[in-house]
Design goal:
The complex is a heterodimer of chains A (258) and B (66).
Chain A (H helix, E strand, L loop, with lengths): L4 E3 L2 E3 L3 E4 L6 H11 L3 E8 L19 E4 L7 H13 L5 E4 L12 H13 L3 E6 L3 H9 L6 E2 L13 H10 L5 E3 L5 H9 L4 E4 L1 H4 L4 H21 L22
Parallel strand pairs in A: 3-4, 3-10, 4-5, 6-7, 7-8, 9-10
Antiparallel strand pairs in A: 1-2
Helix pairs in contact in A: 1-8, 2-3, 4-5, 6-8
Chain B lengths: L1 E4 L2 E4 L6 H7 L8 E4 L2 E2 L15 E9 L2
The chains are: A alpha/beta (258), B mainly beta (66).
């Protein structure tokens, strides 16, 4: 049986979700998506800047291969997040929504109360809701109970590249979750992505680490390999850790000893 | 008549519907979401939605994001 990621009845062979922000150009973003193997890509929604002729990001994303995951970035409360999700749907982007409600810019921590309120509304309106949350096992469970399609706990602050600083709480979320757990935010190196996957996360979402690399396409490939390595290790079953050494060969049977 | 388009005042033709306004300013309907005075306009009604003087119109499209 294929090891597939299932989100709201849709199946994906890739467990790497990619963000499209911060790339130096649309061409480099398109190449990075291609080498990442990702089948889900996040986008944001903003007012069109009528004063300049920008290349349309959508013309660089092959929507036959890629499911768009519009986010609600910029929303500071539930009301704004719901509005952005509805606008994204009306723009024809997707029924999928990465729900993020972030009230302050320094640490960009998600607001659990407003996120929950918005999730309740959006689930009722038929959206497939993927909420971005702090690594809070209780919140994750409550979001599952009201019908969210995944939970997306953060490893460390958005764009910080610091890796998984919330390891114990993410392990609890993975242990208790019946919906996919996507570790999002802060994954700065393929080893961080591998770590999340080894822990049993169902997928990871990476943007900054790929977009700010000198070679975005190569970094995207590296993350793809990291995710695959971590997933294979999880499926294969990691050996137990021990306090003392455990020799790899028997310590008996030498030539001159009993 | 004058409207506010994405935060800036703009002079447009009188008696115009939304889809005509979009083509007048060179915006592709596909991939565009529109709110008028804070209310989302359904794409199905773009061709009949009349614009009134003083309307506050927001046009949104996808950009890069994580």
């Amino acid at each position: 049986m294929m090891d597939e990621l299932k989100i709201a009845g849709k199946t994906f062979s890739s467990r790497l979700l990619i963000g499209t922000g911060k790339f130096p150009s649309n061409d480099s973003m398109r190449d990075a998506i291609e080498s990442s193997g990702a089948q889900i890509a996040t986008v944001a929604l903003r007012r069109v800047d009528l004063s300049k002729e920008d290349g349309d990001i959508l013309s660089y994303i092959d929507r036959k291969k890629i499911t768009l995951l519009p986010n609600t970035s910029g929303a500071r409360d539930a009301k704004e997040a719901v509005m952005l999700a509805r606008l994204a749907r009306e723009a024809g982007l997707s029924d999928f929504v990465k729900l993020e409600v972030v009230p302050e810019p320094r640490y960009l921590m998600p607001d659990p109360i407003e996120t929950f309120k918005a999730a309740e509304i959006l689930v009722k309106e038929g959206f497939t809701v993927l909420p971005y949350i702090n690594a809070d096992p209780i919140l994750a469970k409550k979001l599952e109970e009201i019908g969210c399609a995944t939970v997306m706990p953060l490893g460390s602050p958005i764009g910080s590249n610091r890796g998984i600083k919330t390891r114990d709480a993410i392990a609890m979320i993975i242990d208790q979750s019946n919906i996919p757990v996507v570790v999002d935010a802060g994954l700065g190196a393929p080893s961080h992505a591998a770590e999340a996957m080894e822990m049993g996360a169902d997928a990871v979402l990476v943007n900054t680490a790929i977009a700010v690399a000198s070679n975005q396409s190569e970094m995207a490939r590296a993350f793809r390999l990291g995710v695959e390595a971590g997933r294979s290790a999880y499926m294969a079953g990691l050996g137990p850790q021990g306090e003392t050494a455990s020799a790899s060969s028997p310590l008996t049977g030498f030539l001159n000893r009993e | 008549m004058k409207i506010t388009l994405n935060g800036n005042e703009k002079d447009i033709s009188d008696e115009i519907v939304l889809s005509a306004l979009l083509s007048e300013i060179g915006i592709d309907e596909r991939g565009t979401a529109v709110a008028i005075n804070g209310e989302i306009v359904s794409k199905k009604t773009f061709h009949e939605k009349k614009i009134n003087a003083g309307d506050r119109i927001d046009l949104l499209r996808a950009i890069g994001g994580g």
